[in-house]
């Protein structure tokens, strides 16, 4: 039976690239997003759920449990971005971004990590951002959520060390996904989703005794 990876936000962009890369290496991939219409490729197991809600996380966990297969890799990639500043962003922005970008990863990890600990095997990827380490004036609650996600990654790393479960935070800079549609910037100013996917596979491929704790990837020409 193929190993199993779970990728949230897996219908497009970075998440889809990671799912495709691991499938190409012999995995089956559970891909979760609010909409998974049109995903029929071999090796991809689509499930629709809104992970900004606890009910949505439970929907995904129930589906994974129904497969009756161990999860070898979890990629907490679900995330949204709203530009703004703390003093003027719309009411509710903070709660929406924290629920989507942070709480989803917290609850999903808690739901799956127990089996990884029991089996002493597993790899958790947290899709952070350069916004996890560099504040910017139009980042507002997005930056807060990404700083929090990196903090969670570091806490998990310490907690899971003795259980042989690896934790890797990936911090990509601007990546050519739908989020940058219409920007008018040339492609060479961006990372490609496959760059991030290849980095995740490289981290997973290390020996059991080694872990890439944090991967910082920027466009060659620097941040946008």
Automatic annotation (TrEMBL):
Cross-referenced PROSITE patterns: ADH_SHORT
Alphabetically ordered keywords of this record: Oxidoreductase
Family that this chain belongs to: Belongs to the short-chain dehydrogenases/reductases (SDR) family.
Protein name per UniProt: Short-chain dehydrogenase
Signal peptide positions on this chain: none
Domain of life per record: Bacteria
A Gene Ontology molecular function term of the record: oxidoreductase activity
Pfam family, one: adh_short
């Amino acid at each position: 039976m193929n190993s199993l990876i779970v990728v949230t936000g897996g219908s497009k962009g970075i998440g889809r690239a990671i799912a495709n890369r691991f499938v190409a290496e012999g995995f089956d991939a559970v891909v979760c997003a609010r909409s998974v219409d049109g995903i029929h490729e071999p090796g991809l197991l689509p499930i629709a759920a809104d992970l900004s809600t606890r009910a949505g996380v439970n929907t995904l966990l129930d589906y994974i449990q129904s497969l009756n297969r161990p999860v070898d890799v979890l990629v907490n990639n679900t995330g949204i971005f709203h530009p703004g500043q703390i003093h003027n962003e719309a009411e509710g922005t903070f709660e929406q971004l924290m629920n989507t970008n942070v709480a989803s990863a917290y609850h999903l990890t808690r739901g799956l990590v127990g089996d990884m600990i029991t089996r002493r095997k597993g790899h958790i990827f947290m899709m952070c951002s350069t916004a996890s380490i560099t504040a910017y004036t139009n980042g507002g609650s997005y930056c807060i959520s990404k700083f929090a996600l990196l903090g969670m990654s570091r806490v998990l790393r310490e907690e899971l060390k003795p259980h042989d479960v690896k934790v890797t935070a990936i911090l990509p800079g601007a990546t050519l996904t739908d989020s940058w549609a219409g920007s008018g910037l040339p492609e060479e100013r961006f990372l490609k989703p496959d760059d991030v996917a290849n980095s995740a596979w490289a981290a997973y491929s290390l020996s059991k005794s080694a872990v890439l704790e944090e991967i910082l990837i920027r466009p060659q020409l620097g941040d946008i």
